[in-house]
């Protein structure tokens, strides 16, 4: 606040100030910010102002006057762009959020800060493919690729491994909260499909959230699961995707019969919402029994029976899951028997997609442990049977096999070349003679590669079975069938 100065006689040659003016001194603190440095220099400047006296005001009023401070200037932080190269050679350009801050002082000398944050869609530069997409194949084979940074990034990732089909997560699969589908990312996804001749309606099978349980009876939990489910269907519709795969659910909080009814009710409700378009909901076959719904063909059939619009429901058959649940695929005879059971109980017309995985665990182990093609208990002959079944040519077949490898430095990294090689192996099985030297050599090589892991898991299963037999209780059996004793190996 301004203070009166004592009267002094000026020795200046300038004309004296008029009588109705007085000089005041105000201390102003100026902050000088050195560009590119974090430290601030402060200096105090004494400024002399000339203030004209108002004759109508007395000294007390003038002494109590306040000067309104000027608003601080706007400070803008420019966006910072960094380029990073991932382990697989994919260059990712990341743009940090641009922030603008404006400080405004109010009458109480309190500062209010308003922040405006603008996010930019991350784009992945197209890497050089490690395998070319096969153009003349009757099969649509691919893998579950990453969509980190936006759904559009799935396109260069599938091109990178030479895939003709793919799966992706439309949002974070392990969190309830999710950002809206960005229009820019959606358009880039559609443009990428058009550029590379990809029909997302026929070869894309997004995977649902692991948190969603459409069989839960609690109203709040039910709504939470339904909202996430419908949101995914809506995203598929906006992207031009026709198929959507999800785990049916579990009956931990209710009976099996009631759980199946709840799943069908949620599907029917979603079908009535126009935002879901004409997207087909695919029930995935599961590996375990107990409270898990979908471990038998009968479970799937019961859900479909209760769905009103049969044209918008189907099945995604996971080869590892059904094998672990007791459905054999290894010999031509066993394969034919399993497919006949599927047709009799569900109907082959509902089979819309496949998850292609070998199994680290033996038949009827109820263990969901994915293995690389030909290295597990299913073996190469099971996939030879499937690849040569013309009824399923043209359906999307998605690999979910493990691609983690341990380097010489002991660190784990992803080798997407594994998927690229497996796609070619599966494509080449069409028309191949299982008695040929080519097939026998490949079969033996892959089986040798997986020997240690198969033996390790077999030992676990044997010990568990012996423990259950000793207990001899139904409760113990159900618990063992439902739990996963080796979570580190659970690839989904």
Automatic annotation (TrEMBL):
Q: Which UniProt keywords apply?
A: DNA damage, DNA repair, Hydrolase, Lyase, Metal-binding, Zinc
Xylose isomerase-like TIM barrel domain location: 161-427
Q: Name one GO molecular function term.
A: DNA-(apurinic or apyrimidinic site) endonuclease activity
Q: Where is the composition biased (Basic residues)?
A: 466-478
GO biological process, alphabetically ordered: base-excision repair
Task: Give yes or no: UniProt keyword Flavoprotein.
Answer: no
Question: An example Gene Ontology cellular component term from the record?
Answer: nucleus
UniProt feature, compositional bias: Basic and acidic residues: 445-465
Cofactor(s) the protein requires to work: Zn(2+)
Renumbered to this chain, the Acidic residues biased-composition regions fall at 482-492
| Keyword Hydrolase set for record | yes
Q: Where is this region: Disordered?
A: 1-23, 445-492
Listed InterPro entries: AP_endonuc_2, AP_endonuc_F2_Zn_BS, Xyl_isomerase-like_sf, Xyl_isomerase-like_TIM-brl
Superkingdom of the source?
Answer: Eukaryota
The similarity annotation says: Belongs to the AP endonuclease 2 family.
Identification of the protein by name: Apurinic-apyrimidinic endonuclease 1
Q: Which organism is it from?
A: Neocucurbitaria cava
């Amino acid at each position: 606040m301004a203070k009166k100065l004592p009267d002094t006689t000026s020795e200046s040659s300038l004309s004296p100030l008029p009588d109705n003016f007085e000089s005041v001194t105000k201390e102003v603190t100026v902050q000088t910010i050195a560009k590119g440095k974090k430290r601030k220099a402060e200096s105090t400047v004494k400024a002399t102002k000339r203030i004209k006296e108002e004759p109508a005001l007395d000294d007390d009023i003038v002494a109590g006057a306040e000067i309104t401070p000027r608003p601080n200037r706007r400070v803008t932080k420019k966006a910072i762009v960094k380029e990073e190269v991932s382990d697989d050679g994919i260059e990712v350009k990341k743009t940090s959020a641009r922030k603008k801050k404006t400080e405004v002082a109010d009458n109480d000398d309190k500062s209010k800060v308003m922040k405006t944050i603008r996010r930019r869609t991350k784009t992945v530069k197209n890497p050089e493919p490690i395998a070319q997409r096969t153009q003349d194949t009757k099969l649509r084979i691919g893998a579950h690729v990453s969509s980190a940074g936006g759904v559009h990034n799935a396109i260069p990732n599938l091109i990178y491994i030479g895939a003709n089909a793919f799966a992706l997560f439309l949002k974070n699969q392990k969190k309830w909260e999710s950002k809206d589908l960005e229009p820019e990312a959606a358009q880039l996804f559609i443009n990428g499909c058009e550029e590379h001749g990809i029909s997302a309606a026929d070869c894309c099978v997004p995977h649902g959230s692991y948190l969603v349980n459409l069989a839960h009876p609690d109203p709040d939990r039910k709504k939470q699961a339904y909202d996430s489910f419908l949101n995914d269907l809506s995203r598929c519709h906006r992207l031009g995707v026709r198929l959507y795969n999800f785990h049916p659910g579990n009956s931990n909080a209710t009976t099996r019969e009631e759980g199946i009814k709840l799943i069908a009710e949620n599907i029917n409700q979603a079908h009535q919402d126009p935002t879901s378009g004409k997207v087909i909901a695919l029930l995935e076959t599961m590996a375990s029994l107990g409270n898990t719904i979908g471990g038998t063909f009968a479970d799937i059939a019961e859900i479909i029976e209760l769905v009103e619009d049969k044209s918008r429901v189907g099945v995604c058959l996971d080869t590892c899951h059904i094998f672990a649940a007791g459905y054999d695929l290894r010999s031509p005879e066993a394969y034919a028997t399993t497919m006949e059971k599927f047709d009799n109980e569900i109907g082959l017309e509902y089979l819309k997609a496949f998850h292609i995985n070998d199994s680290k665990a033996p038949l009827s182990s109820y263990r969901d442990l994915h293995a690389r093609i030909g290295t597990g208990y299913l073996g190469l002959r099971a996939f030879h049977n499937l690849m040569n079944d013309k009824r399923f040519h043209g359906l999307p077949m998605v690999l979910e096999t493990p691609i983690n490898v341990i380097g010489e430095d002991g660190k784990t990294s992803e080798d997407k070349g594994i998927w690229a090689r497996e796609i070619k192996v599966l494509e080449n099985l069409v028309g191949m003679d299982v008695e040929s030297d080519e097939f026998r050599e490949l079969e033996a090589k892959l089986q040798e590669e997986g020997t240690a892991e198969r033996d390790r898991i077999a030992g676990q299963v044997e010990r568990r079975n012996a423990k259950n037999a000793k207990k001899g209780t139904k409760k113990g059996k159900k618990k063992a069938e439902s739990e996963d004793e080796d979570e580190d190996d659970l690839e989904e």
